[in-house]
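Standup notes, structure subgroup. Blocker cleared on the coenzyme A input:
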Amino acid sequence: MALDPLLKKVNWLDSEDVRPYVFVRPENQINTPGIRHRLGWFIEKAIVKNPLHLEELPFAEQIYFIENAAFGPSAMPMPRWVFYDCAVMPGFVSGFAYRTEKLPAALKKILPLQKNAEWTPLSLFIINPTMHKGEWVAHNLCSVNSLLPKADQFYGLGFLSKAFGLWYANVDQCTGMTQWGGPALKLHSHYGHLEVIGAYAPVHSYAKTITYRAKVDTHNWEQFFTREPDLAFLEKFEPTQIEIDPQNENSMIDLQYRIQKNEGPFYLSAGEIASKALNEKLRIYRMKSNY
Ligand SMILES: CC(C)(COP(=O)(O)OP(=O)(O)OC[C@H]1O[C@@H](n2cnc3c(N)ncnc32)[C@H](O)[C@@H]1OP(=O)(O)O)[C@@H](O)C(=O)NCCC(=O)NCCS
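Run returned:
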C-alpha cells in the first residue's frame, strides 16, 4: 500500500497477506468508495463480504472473538443481537484481515483458527449513518493489538481501521462516544478537530463518557504517526481554563453544563492527548475570537 515513507512504523500494511475488509450487506455497499477524501493510503482492494451469507459465519465468529476479548476488561462486549440489529443491518462494518495460512505465530496463539477461512479479521470498525444528513455515528472500534504483547503488535492497526472506514465510506462528519481516560481518545482525536458535544452521559452504561463530533479531515491523519504539531489547530483554537480530570466526575459534569448553556463549542487537542498519559488532565480549547 502507498503510505508515505514517513509512516514506516506501519510496514505490516505493505504485506500482501494483510488486506482491508468490508463486511456489509449489499444494499448498504458504498457505490463510489474513497472519493470524498484525497488519500493514497488504501490502494489495495478491499475484501468484500456479505454478513448475511451463511458461508461468512466463520468470519463473523472471529470478529466476535476479537471484539469480546478486547471489550471484556471494560465489561462492554457486544451482544450478538447488537452486532446484527445495530451494525450489520443499518450500517457499515470494516477492518483489516490477515491471510489465515500465513498468520504469524503470535496471532495463532491467541485467535481461534478457522482453517477453511481464507482471511482472519484483526480489527473492527463499525459506523452507522444517521438521520442528520452527512453525519455518521462510530459505534465500535477494536483491534487485536489489545490482546497481543507489545513486540507482536501491528502498530496503528486500530487507528488505520477507523481511517479506512471513514475514507472508504466517504464520511463527512463523524460523531462518536468513548470513555474519558481511555486509550481510544488518542486515536479518535486525529480524524478532524474534535468537538466535545457531551462531556458526561449518565444515560450511557458509563456516565464518564465523552460524546464527540469531528468534521473528517485527512490533513490530521499523518500527524498520528509523525507527531508534528497541528498548525491549523493552533491557529484556530486557544486553551481555556477548563480541564477534564479523568478521575473527577465533577469536571465532566461542569463542562456538560457549560455545553448545555451554549458556552461552547469546546474542543480537545489531539497533540496534547498524544503527549499525555491516560490519567492526566486534559485542557479544553475554544475557537479564537478573531477566527
Ligand atoms: C483502543 C484500541 C482500538 C486502540 O487500537 P490499537 O491498535 O491498540 O492502537 P494503534 O496501534 O492504532 O495506536 C497506537 C497508539 O495508541 C496507544 N494505545 C493503544 N492502547 C493503549 C493503552 N491500553 N494504553 C495507552 N495507550 C494505548 C499506543 O500507546 C499508541 O500511542 P503511542 O504511539 O503514543 O504509543 C485497542 O486498544 C482496543 O481494541 N481496545 C479495546 C477496545 C476499546 O477500548 N475500544 C475503543 C472504544 S471507543
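Discussed briefly. The longest strand covers residues 135-143.
Next: hand off to the docking folks.
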